[in-house]
Write a structure and sequence with these properties.
Radius of gyration of chain A: 18 Å
Strand order of the largest sheet of chain A: 6-9-10-3-11-12
Radius of gyration of chain B: 23 Å
Largest interface: A-B, 30 and 22 residues
Shape of chain B: globular
CATH topology of chain A: Rossmann fold
Number of helices of chain A: 9
Order of helices and strands of chain A: EEEHEEHEEHHHEHEHEEEHH
Largest sheet of chain B: 11 strands, mixed
Number of strands of chain A: 12
Oligomer: heterodimer
Shape of chain A: globular
Distance between the termini of chain A: 28 Å
Strand content of chain A: 25-35%
Helix content of chain A: 25-40%
CATH architecture of chain A: 3-Layer(aba) Sandwich
């Protein structure tokens, strides 16, 4: 699904990623953990194609396509979805209108006509039900006045609607209470299949209790310094990150 | 009466002559410049009664003494009013033989707006034989209105057919001495619309100038008069949503609305005249005076979407004379490239318990300047007057400007006036978020702008709102690179 080789990236001339190698296969869930400032969000934004994050070396391939060739929306059309750590507000644009625009943009890119209204409505209803989202929520302006938890749930709602091949969840667990966390995790688990992959970026192993990763990677100072299975997450939880710094 | 051989021959000769020589058509255009004689000749051409001629002459006389105002937040080279011809023959030869000759950029815009080929031809000045659809629509439309006693016709026709109404109301809300451009318009207007809704009648359809585009076109000095008699209702749509490449430098229209007791007038405008090119060359100067008067318990709503013109200078206003009357102003003004807009409203509260609402949305891109200027005035007699104003500005890029000039004058201490203002910028983060969801940048901007303008777009009649949305998209195309 996603192959990253020796990825180096800069933000405002400062090296943040210093040689990342990562191989994510279809059907897998990878967790990327690490202390603040280790480059986790930079990695997700570099994959998504944010222009502020300049790739200086190495490459990223999604389903065999070199991502360097594609701009942000083309990467999205190919199946990259990023659940934002800080989703932006768009006043006056309802959740429904936004997702409709996004879905039809994907369809257009794939040579399909707009999704018929009835089909779209059904999909929205089913997804809202799955994530226990109230229908009133769907007519509110995107992220405007949303609580932290509502914003994150809205991100997962969009993910479920767009059905990406590669979902990157950046700190999706922050701001969620335990009930909301379970709902979100449940949603992600239901959407998981052998054809898609998930990358979870997190500080804590809390979310990993509910979405069990196949692999856990520890990022520190722009490099993956340790990889393992879900036990590594437990170890980090117990021992903190200090011992990791020794490895670097 | 059947033709004689001689007459037929003569007729055929003239026809040939007409098509062969421009001079004959041109001869019906007045020489450039403005003086009393020109005003008299306009009135003569329009076969107006003596009182109208005199009205124009009085207007001219006071106009000559006035000076062009310059207090607006706009900069432009004042048009030379002696270099314009104030009357030209209504019949023009088609500009082009086929659509192939029309500017492809213009056609592209038409396609984006979803305008049919026939309409495209009409709008760009291509010869069309008969547009059956619009002919039949216009006819049925006239019948329906006539049955209700509604008068909807060119103002020149109304001057002749309904002099008692025109005489009573023309200049009653905007007297010729009101301002420089209103004075000029009063002296030289050649066309416009007249509308009268009788007592207690609810106009069954949106009245649109579009339906009589053949007769009216968009005159340089348009004059509109709408009278809603007691207890009546009308929704009036002004403007054509196609971007007509009108090269006239100056447009100085006057619109007067009269809402008698318990009447309601909804007046919606979509203005998209030529804004000039990307370097700021050319474009229309749009200096319009629009004002309505509300009698007891009546209501006037102005809704405008302004995307065109190089310089826009207009303040659709309400005089809330009657007790319990309501004035509303909903506006979206978009400026891009080098456009300048200074627009807003005046709400003059005179009666008791009068209410007004102002929602203004300014969107600036490129190197444009966008100003809101509004006055809320509460007279001493206007007990319990209330106003709510909200002015929001959206900026795109770093080279444009948004300005807000709210003026408040309250002489009644029971008045309640609220003013809110916000300024925001379309952020790269918003664009990136949309991009990540597969939405390209152009579409993302359209989405953000539409969201920003929603409160006003919702006030437009349905079909107008859809076109207005498309217009917003087109006007802002390429504004974020």
């Amino acid at each position: 699904m996603l192959t990253i080789e020796n990825l180096h990236a800069q933000v405002e001339g400062k090296d943040i990623l210093k040689g990342i190698d990562l191989d994510v296969k279809a059907g897998e869930v990878h967790a990327i953990m690490g202390p603040n400032g280790s480059g986790k969000s930079t990695l997700s934004l570099a994959i998504a194609g944010n222009e502020d994050y300049e790739v200086t070396k190495g490459k990223m391939l999604l389903k065999g396509t070199d991502l360097a060739e594609l701009n942000t929306e083309e990467r999205a059309h190919l199946g990259v979805f990023l659940s934002f750590q800080y989703p932006v507000e768009i006043p006056g644009v309802t959740v429904t209108n936004f997702i409709k625009t996004a879905i039809n943009a994907h369809r257009k890119a794939n040579g399909l006509k707009d999704m018929p209204a009835s089909e779209l409505l059904k999909k929205i209803r089913d997804t809202a039900k799955l994530l226990e989202i109230d229908s009133k929520f769907l007519s509110r302006s995107l992220n405007e006045g949303f609580s932290g938890g509502e914003k994150k749930r809205n991100e997962i709602f969009q993910m479920a609607m767009l059905e990406p091949s590669l979902a990157i969840l950046d700190e999706t667990d922050s701001g969620l209470d335990i009930d909301a966390l379970k709902i979100v995790a449940n949603g992600v688990n239901k959407l998981k299949s052998k054809d898609n992959a998930v990358i979870i970026i997190t500080h804590y192993q809390r979310l990993l209790e509910y979405i069990v990763p196949d692999f856990v990677h520890v990022l520190f100072d722009g490099r993956i310094v340790k990889s393992g299975t879900k036990e590594l997450a437990h170890e980090l939880e117990a021992k903190g990150y200090d011992w990791i710094k020794e490895l670097a | 009466m059947p033709y004689t051989e001689e007459e037929l021959k003569k007729e055929l000769e003239t026809k040939e002559y007409e098509y062969g020589f421009y001079t004959d058509i041109e001869s019906d255009t007045f020489p450039i410049g403005l003086n009393e004689d020109i005003v008299r000749r306009i009135s003569e051409k329009k076969e107006e009664p003596e009182w109208m001629t005199q009205w124009r002459l009085d207007a001219y006389e006071s106009w000559v003494k006035m000076e062009e105002p310059d207090w607006a937040n706009v900069k432009y080279k004042k048009p030379d009013l002696q270099a314009i011809s104030y009357y030209s023959a209504p019949k023009k030869k088609p500009k082009y033989e086929s659509l192939d000759q029309v500017d492809p950029e213009l056609l592209e815009t038409f396609n984006k707006l979803g305008i049919s080929i026939d309409e495209q031809k009409k709008l760009s000045g291509v010869a069309v034989d008969i547009v059956i659809d619009s002919v039949s629509v216009a006819t049925t439309f006239k019948d329906t209105l006539a049955k209700k006693g509604i008068i909807f016709c060119p103002i020149s026709e109304a001057i002749k057919e309904h002099p008692e109404l025109v005489k009573k109301y023309i200049g009653s809300v905007i007297p010729p001495k009101d301002n420089y451009y209103a004075g000029l318009n009063s002296a030289v207007f050649t066309d416009g619309s007249f509308c009268y809704i009788p007592k207690g009648v609810r106009c069954p359809m949106e009245l649109s100038t579009y339906f009589r585009i053949n007769q009216a076109g968009t005159g340089q000095f348009e004059r509109t008069l709408v009278i809603a008699d007691e207890g009546s209702y009308v929704s009036y749509l002004e403007g054509c949503t196609a971007p007509s490449r009108d090269e006239n430098q100056l447009h100085a229209a006057v619109v007067e609305l009269i809402a008698l007791d318990d009447a309601e007038i909804k007046y919606s405008t979509v203005q998209n005249w030529y804004p000039g090119n990307k370097e700021g060359k050319g474009g229309v100067f749009n200096f319009v005076t629009k004002r309505g008067i509300c009698h007891n318990r009546s209501k006037i709503s102005w809704t405008q979407v302004e995307t065109g013109s190089a310089v826009t200078w207009k303040y659709p206003s309400c005089i809330l004379k009657g007790d319990h009357s309501i004035g509303e102003f909903y506006s979206i003004a978009v400026t891009n490239n080098f456009q300048q807009a200074d627009t807003g409203t005046k709400m003059i509260h005179l009666g008791e318990n009068t209410r007004s609402t102002i929602i203004s949305k300014g969107i600036s891109a490129g190197q444009s300047q966008n100003s809101y200027r509004g006055l809320v005035k509460v007279g001493a007699r206007a007990k319990n007057a209330r106003n709510f104003s909200q002015c929001d500005s959206l900026l795109m890029g770093n080279d444009c400007g948004a300005h807000t000039f709210p003026y408040i004058e309250a002489k009644s201490n029971s008045a309640q006036i609220e003013h809110e203002a916000t300024t925001s910028k379309i952020g790269e983060e918003q664009i990136f978020y949309c991009n990540q969801r597969g939405i390209d940048t152009e579409k993302a901007i359209a989405l953000i702008v539409n969201g920003f303008s929603k409160e006003v777009l919702n006030k437009l009649p349905m079909e107008f709102a859809v076109e207005a949305q498309k217009l917003l998209e087109i006007s802002l195309e390429g504004s974020v690179g």
